[in-house]
Amino acid sequence: MYEVQKRDALAPGLTLLKIRAPQIARKMQPGQFVIARVDEFGERIPLSVADWDNESISVVVQDVGVSTRKISLLDVTDSLQNLAGPLGKPSPIENFGTVAVVSGCFGIGPGYALARALKKAGNRVIMIVEARNPDWLFWQDRLEKVSDRLILTCNRAGADDSCATNPVKRLIESEKIDRVYAIGCTFMMMEISNATAPAAVPTRVSLMPLMVDGTGMCGACRCLVEGKTVLGCVDGPEFDGHKVDWNRLVERMRSYLDEETAAMDIWDRENWHLATDRKAAQAAHGRV
Ligand SMILES: Cc1cc2nc3c(=O)[nH]c(=O)nc-3n(C[C@H](O)[C@H](O)[C@H](O)COP(=O)(O)OP(=O)(O)OC[C@H]3O[C@@H](n4cnc5c(N)ncnc54)[C@H](O)[C@@H]3O)c2cc1C
Ligand code: FES
């Protein structure tokens, strides 16, 4: 069992969990992920790692369905049934020069870990964070420490930019960017890849195909990259954004939408009291 040591409601629907897992934490590298199972009936859910020390890993969980909601509701001293990792290939970290790290939603967490490693390797790091509204922004203090420049975008009247795409285009026009990384929602990663393609700026994206075992055995995470079938879990999760077949990826990610929606409805009806408790807990943190 993997005990939760810390829980923090970072933003509405975004929860940080610090989980005791020394054997995983000691081998973890930026870009890798874990697969978590909340209880004996739980699905296997891939989660990117946002931080770690010798004893524990931290993940940022975005509540989008039954399993992420159940994991988000875990509290200190609760435990996950299983945790497997580290999984996936680590991000290659070297001194590329000037690197832009674009992140949003839960991706701000793993984006922070990536930026920290790139900064340590000697890169000039520009972080661009996309938040749907100001409440969705977290770790600004941490992000400032690992970047030379932090650009915040948010979908709010009066904000200079509503999303990360235009700042990325302006950066590419105004200076030499040696590499772009994008991590967060699939649409954002696709848009960033489209924005960097005309200038051929190398762009790495951390894909989120459906995964089951996470070790290359089931084939659930098949993606098309440069016309070839690859496995997101063992060949990735990071790929060249200019070579990903985004339509195929989104199509496969939506394969079980009806079943997922039905499962969420049933869970909500059976667990209405937990949703109420969750709102109360978020209100206590000043976030409803
Ligand atoms: C390598 C990787 C790293 C990820 N890192 C994070 C993270 O750090 N934080 C975070 O909140 N989310 C992360 N995700 C996404 C997360 O795994 C899914 O949101 C989660 O599995 C959804 O499960 P659910 O039961 O809550 O929702 P569901 O209602 O079952 O699904 C909602 C949507 O999530 C996707 N999804 C569902 N099941 C899976 C699955 N087994 N594997 C992948 N995607 C699935 C589908 O697109 C689906 O439409 C990551 C995914 C991958 C592949
Ligand atoms: S998740 Fe099964 S092969 Fe990748």
How is the secondary structure organized here?
Elements: E1 2-11, E2 14-20, H1 22-25, E3 33-37, E4 45-52, E5 56-62, H2 66-72, E6 79-80, E7 82-87, E8 98-104, H3 108-120, E9 124-131, H4 140-146, E10 149-154, H5 165-174, E11 179-183, H6 186-196, E12 203-206, E13 222-225, E14 228-231, E15 238-240, H7 246-253, H8 257-270, H9 272-284
Helix pairs in contact: 3-4, 5-6
Bound molecules: flavin-adenine dinucleotide (FAD) and FE2/S2 (inorganic) cluster.
Q: Taking Cα atoms only, what radius of gyration do you get, to the nearest Å?
A: 18 Å
Number of domains: 3
Give the topology string: H per helix, E per strand: EEHEEEHEEEHEHEHEHEEEEHHH
CATH class of the largest domain: Alpha Beta
Named once each, the bound ligands are: flavin-adenine dinucleotide, FE2/S2 (inorganic) cluster
Largest sheet: 7 strands, antiparallel
The parts where pLDDT drops under 50 for at least 5 residues are none
Determine the number of helices (DSSP H or I, runs of at least 4 residues). Answer: 9
| Mean residue pLDDT | 91
What would the CATH topology of the largest domain be?
Rossmann fold
Shape: globular
How far apart, in Å, are the first and last alpha carbons? 31 Å
In terms of DSSP E residues, the strand content is 25-35%
- CATH H-level superfamily of the largest domain: Nucleotide-binding domain of ferredoxin-NADP reductase (FNR) module
How many DSSP-defined strands? 15
- What is the CATH-assigned architecture of the largest domain? 3-Layer(aba) Sandwich
